[in-house]
Amino acid sequence: MNENALNANVGLKLRGLRLARNIKQTDAAKELGVSPAYLNLIEKGKRVMPFPLLWKALRYFDQDPEQFMSSLGEGRVDEALAKLLDEPLLKSLDIDSESLQSLSAEPKLAGTVAALFNLYKNTRTQLENVLAQLSNEERTRTQSNDGPGVRYDYSPFDEVSDFLESHRNYFPELEEQADALRRDLKLERVLTSAQLIRLLEERFGFQVGFERGPSGSSVVRRLDLDEQTLTLSPDLTEQPLKFQIATSIGLLLMDRSKLVERIVGAGRTRHAETQRLIKVNLANYFAGALMLPYGDFFKEVERTRYDVELLSSIFGTTYETVAHRLCNLSDPKRMGLPFHFLRADIAGNISKRYSGTGLKFATGGGSCGKWAVHLAFLNPGQLTRQYSMMPDGATYFCFAKVQLQPIEGSIVKGTAYSIGLGTHAENAKYLAYGLPTNDLRKDAVATGITCRFCERTDCNQRAAASYRFAFAFDEYTKKDCFFSPLLVHEKNDKGERGENGERNGADKNGRQELLDKQARRRNKSES
Known about the structure:
This protein is α+β, with helices and mostly antiparallel strands. Helix content is about 45%, strand content about 10%. The chain contains 21 helices and eleven strands. The strands form three sheets. A six-stranded mixed beta sheet has the order 7-6-10-9-8-11. It has a three-stranded mixed beta sheet with strand order 1-3-2, with helices on one face. Helix 2 crosses helix 3 (about 35-45).
């Protein structure tokens, strides 16, 4: 322990002894023969405490000197505060153990902080439960055609997705900026990180450096506008490194030309975070436009018949970057095929999504376990392809590939994502990955959007009951999936008879059949 730390520890321990005995600082200073101001500085660790004064203080507080000296290296933190060290919120605020140890010297304050934090957690949990309940009620009311109502689970990410889809994920101003930059600097087809670094330094006056973040930090890019520096992680390989530098250039260009304000317009967003998220998405869009210029890329897309793997090799970028760029081809003069895009992890969580095909994604997460983007994890070394059919009869051709990024040779420490693309089934013949089919209805996999809103009655992959059906259960009849709704003709016909002689089971099933018909009619009207 260094001298400063020792002084701070001695002061904190003495302050703790004084407060535990409920002695005022002025009274203690008088007994020790020092001024209250001097004792205050000692307790804060800003003054060295002479040993004679320390022994006098220990006698005054009736504290064993040997026990006190042995406790100096313990750095003991209040138990209630110590538990908070593992809380995600405190980790994000970077409150270290030394700060909590200083707070521990104020028992009442420490207890108050711990109580307030726990109160915040409980309130946050209750709020989330209320919002979830309101959202469920709203979904049910919407399905009953009682009006659209308010979307309580409409997140900033949902708002960004709607913004991109409303613009068909195509932004001509960003395309023009990227093309102009390539022309001015006479950049070749395949960009290198060295070229982009030189561009950032010469055109924008930013210095680029590589620095590993503090232990436990996963920051890979930090753009400091005041210092005019871009700091990158040395662990980035060439392809993601190029993308991060190109994104930084996009951010600086948008700041200089006020592009975000012009693209987004004066309309208010529902969430405060939405505009920043839109800016990030537009910067990423610019990076894709700079690395994969529209004209050249579109020509190669048509020549290779949308071969994503080959295109990533031609332009020296990642599979995911090419997949994203395929969703930008909405120039009326050079229109590409419409695609929907999904990025999912091995647990089925969707972290990115875009629909250019009209496919509706569930708000708040969740998706169909029979989609190709999830099935790709069964064969991570190869492309997964399938035709899929939605309950309303809409058919798509989908393909997905797993991208692994191990850290220190371990995929558990790294990341594993499945990148999925889909287009209308009739477009499969234009794709290098297209599958032949003579009977689409037979070859297509029966899929849905998400279990909670799927009207399929015989899906063996169901993970939850659907809101489209009144839940009915017969302990004597078992379907292959517990959550599949029980239909009239499937239920055990030996229902109990009521006073009027009718079978109660049949009567319930009759109501179920009516609800099923109503759900099918609603779905037809929605489509």
